[in-house]
């Protein structure tokens, strides 16, 4: 589906992504993990085509990603980015309709099929009753659903998500991930997600890729890769890793804080 061949990216003299190689299969989900500054978002931006690698290449099927025109890329790859919604006074439906731009020529209006796709996505994301609501009137969870609806209406083969659950409450997090998982299973959608929550990544992702200082230090299924020793190496914290009682996926428990009472000072 997509092949990443020894890609590197530099900002000034700093190498933020260093020789990463990875193959993405159709219909799988991959989590990109690592501490802040490890190169996760930069790698995702190269996969999206927003950034071009300084070294190496990315191939989408048999085409070099850097050679594809933006609209051709957008028919294959969508990016979930809530911040792109902004505070413009568009309605939910108008914002989602904008996701059909890869299929429209200049000044062309939506076709009957475009409208059908938008209607289906509104229904699947539980936004049908919010179609005429202004974006500025939505909660954070609702805005994130609009963002994913706008991405899915592109009918992509690959969906890229950059920390999609940040700032969302638990119900909104699982609602968003459930929509993604449904599309993965029903449509063969390939999912690539940058995420900090290791427990969610372990439950959600078929494979995980750990980055540290721009390099890949571990890649494989969560059961193969996630361990207390790896977490301590990558994040510098001590944890306990246990299997999930239903799935067997590794789940991380933090060690309790040390019982060091604060010293009382005389006033």
Automatic annotation (TrEMBL):
InterPro entries: AAA+_ATPase, ABC_transporter-like_ATP-bd, ABC_transporter-like_CS, P-loop_NTPase. This is Iron complex transport system ATP-binding protein. GO terms for molecular function: ATP binding; ATP hydrolysis activity. The keyword Transcription does not apply. It comes from the Bacteria. Gene3D superfamilies: P-loop containing nucleotide triphosphate hydrolases. Residues 2-238 form the ABC transporter domain. PROSITE patterns: ABC_TRANSPORTER_1, ABC_TRANSPORTER_2. The keyword Transport applies. Keywords: ATP-binding, Nucleotide-binding, Translocase, Transport.
